[in-house]
Design brief:
By secondary structure, this protein is mostly helical. The chain contains seven helices and no strands.
Length: 151
């Protein structure tokens, strides 16, 4: 679609999104988020209030991309909401640099276990959304994005 804007690509839940576009757009968000986090984090690499706000900011377009992808799979937004909640939990436990430091020495605290568990669930959701084949043809959320691209 040549008439796509940044807002329609990242801040809309009005359409279905195929696997390739989902992958590319989440990759863009991830790379930009990581670069900004590295650029604005503390000297020791730990997060600060600004990088935490940036992380929360990037949850918004991620949520909308998940919703668009779920629509292509003919599913509601429950998984996208779960992913946002997990993202917030991840941020809370990622702030505990002591737990992360202890993980580096092989000591896995309770907070670190939550951090790892949430990371694994979020990765599984992302892999599912990247590789699950969307419904063919029209579904309750609209036309097949692959068919729309061909016409």
């Amino acid at each position: 679609m040549a008439d796509e804007t940044i807002q329609s690509m990242f801040l809309s839940s009005e359409r279905r999104l195929n696997r390739l576009k989902y992958f590319k757009r989440t990759l863009v968000i991830g790379v930009v988020a990581i670069l900004l986090n590295v650029l604005f984090s503390n000297e020791d690499g730990s997060d600060n209030a600004f990088t935490l706000l940036l992380s929360i900011f990037f949850l918004v377009p991620s949520y909308f991309l998940d919703v668009q992808r779920l629509k292509d799979l003919d599913k509601d937004s429950t998984i996208a909401i779960l992913n946002v909640i997990l993202g917030l939990v991840f941020m809370v436990f990622a702030q505990d640099s002591l737990s992360i430091e202890m993980m580096n020495y092989g000591i896995i605290t309770g907070e670190a276990r939550v951090y790892i568990f949430v990371s694994l669930i979020q990765t599984a959701i992302w892999v599912y959304l990247c590789f699950a084949e969307g419904t063919h043809g029209r579904n309750k959320y609209g036309e097949d994005p692959l068919e729309a691209n061909e016409s």
